[in-house]
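From the pipeline queue, job 12 of 40. The input is one protein chain; the requested action is below.

Action: predict structure.
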Amino acid sequence: MHSLIEYDKQLLLFLHSKGSVTWDIFWLFITNPLNWIPLFFLLFYLVYTIYDFKKTFFICLLTFIAGFLSLTTVNIIKNFIQRKRPINDESINETLRILIEQNDFSFVSGHSTVSFTIAFISFWILKKNYKYAFLIFLFPILFAYSRIYLAAHYPIDILVGMLLGYIFAFIFYRLIKKLILKQKTT
């Protein structure tokens, strides 16, 4: 386990070292959840072009609940594991460019978990009607990478967040299919 944690630190240091002042503003913008609100309106609109308002509303409601529960789970895990964020880890923070301050814990990434939960549900709902639905994954990939760029998370925090997001999305997509779309779940 110790070697995995050391590898994780080294990978973070390598990826973080690729940053530059030129890109800082971009990644600070990307990491702010409020800047993604227009994307959520676009997703609502795209779902609405497929289903009526009632179904669209309940799909969005279940997606919101999935995101909320995934974030709640992340916070429980963070407070149980209590891994320091890279920017607060005395063993490496001297070599980091500190662009943000956060004092809570690192493992697991809430940005990664929630964004992948939303992206997977959205992708599965939209993929039959939109050829380029896979582009939705640009959102969580950029969002999650911003956390590494800003040294707010280690790569393993992001990867486990992706996995948790997939699990929550899988469960809630099955609920959406069964309860709202009235399709058999296989």
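Job complete. The mean pLDDT is 92.
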